[in-house]
Amino acid sequence: MELVAETLAWLTEGANWTGSGGIPNRIIEHLALSGVSLVLAFAIAFPAGVVIGHTRRAANVAVNVANLARAVPSLALIGLVVPLTAAADPELGFKVYPTVIAMVVLGVPPILVNTYTGVSDIDRELVESARGMGMTGAQTLTRVELPLALPVLVGGVRSAAVQIIATATLGAIFGGGGLGRFLVEGIAQNDAGKIFGGVVLVAGLALLAEGAFALAERALTSPGLRVQRKAWDPRLAPATNAPPT
Amino acid sequence: MPRAARPSLPPAPDGSRPVIDWVWIVDHLDDLAARTIQHLYLAGLAVGVGFVLSFGLALWAVRQRAVYAPITAITGVLYTIPSLAMFAALVPVTGLSIWTAQVPLILYTLLIFLRNIVAGFDAVPREVVEAADGMGYTRAQRLWRVELPLAVPLIVAGVRLASVSTIGLVTITGTLGDRFGGLGFFIFEGYRRGFPTEIFAGAVPSIALAITVDLLLVWVQRRITPWARPARRVAMVAAEAAT
Q1: Is the pLDDT confidence value at B44 over 60?
Q2: Fold (CATH) for B22-242
Q3: What was the ipTM of the complex prediction?
Q4: Is any Cβ of chain B less than 8 angstroms from the Cβ of A92?
Q5: Does residue A36 sit within a domain?
């Protein structure tokens, strides 16, 4: 109970809500870092996934590389990049670039694999009917393949977003901004209120992002597909993604 | 072994200091070996305990289907929480102890194992279960001699995913102090001392360890499920033909 009181005291302390180290600014930093990385990861993974899914070329190589990239520990990846970028820029090379690079590298595999799977798992008969109706390759892609792949694709973006938000937290270990700062500083200062306040904020952000993407996934599912989806609950499928690290 | 003080990052522009100080690495091979063992111990303990807990939960869920959705919902929420927050959350409760390092690692494995073990049991064809019943197997015999062996491929896939992700997460336990972290210790200490070689000495073996264990378990997966191999080959040929 004492812990709850300390956490509430920290969260409601006015001084914690102002300035560059305040809660609002840390939330903005966290969202900005994560948002930029997610957009970059999407810009790389989506076109690649579409091309591989549509043409079905190089699929084995891409999926294997993506699976291998998923095995890479995020902290080690940040650590690997730190000395390289720090040599180029002593300030941002420590605090921003390594985390962003790690976030992009870890965000690409789920989006790539899901885009590819979403597009290539479409019933071949549907694609052939589209061709039979006289659609060009581009029309087939934008009017048939992408709408059908959209729920799976958004699922990939959702995994990537959760992974990226978790990795942004780790950036604080190397002096970066974002909500992870409260955790790192709280542990260093042995301040239980600050640690738990940080935990509430970080966990809240991750769960909110997960929830928002889950809603988007549902909203973007074509009404014709919704009927089928009822029978298949994605939560009951075997796990394929590693937890956010 | 005493460690000499090092100049801080970044290296001098005149390049007087090598990017990787091989002498330091050779001097610290014993430390690297000890931390690798600690890394495997911390990961192995969590995966082992997580597997036993999940197996119990999975058997419960398979028999009483109604409990499965709530269990996956709870473990799913735990799964979404970033690891640094999960470790930090336990610091005020259990201090900088082994519990603080192990509990989050175990919790993260639960969802992976649970989903894969239950999916493994679900994948057993109904006719096979009925044939076993017809041959007079008791429920326990059917479980151990029929269902479990058939569920093995998906269970091993779960072990692989859980092992690899736990190996990654062990590096983050270094935030709880120098007693933990496995190879991640060198990343933390190297950063504190501004010594790139030490950061590399932690990061490169961590990545290598995760990938090695991943590939090793793929091999194990193939070895213990020989019946899956011919089908795999056919599938690969089909995939090649399609490209």
Answers
A1: yes
A2: MetI-like fold (1.10.3720)
A3: 0.82
A4: no
A5: yes
